[in-house]
Each structure stands twice: as structure tokens, then as C-alpha cells.
Amino acid sequence: MQGFDAFKQSLTDPNTGASCVNLVLSCVDNYEARITINQLATSKQLDHFKASPPLGYLLHVSVPD
Description:
Elements: H1 4-10, E1 23-26, H2 31-43, E2 47-52, E3 58-62
Parallel strand pairs: 1-2
Antiparallel strand pairs: 2-3
């Protein structure tokens, strides 16, 4: 996927390797992009909000355990 590595790196502080974001807000209408964002946010244990344009802009909240 084009841009995958850049997106993954944007979530990580290059000096410490720790996450540099507190929340991922996803407003994409592409299934592949939505799954990729979900997997990266989950793997880094980040809270992420998904607004689903195909479903009428419903807001879903996913919070890792």
C-alpha cells in the first residue's frame, strides 16, 4: 500500500520509538485504508475513532483493553 510506511512512521517518535500521538481519527471511506489504520492503531495500543462515510457518518469508538 502506497504511503503505509510514512503513515506508520508518523505515529512513532523517531528518537524514542514511542508513540507520538494520543488519538487516531479516521475519516476514510476506503476499506483497505480503514483496515490498515485500525491495525496500526491497535498494534500501537492507541485510541482510535472511526467515522464511516458509507454508513452515514456514524461514529465508532474503539479503545484498546
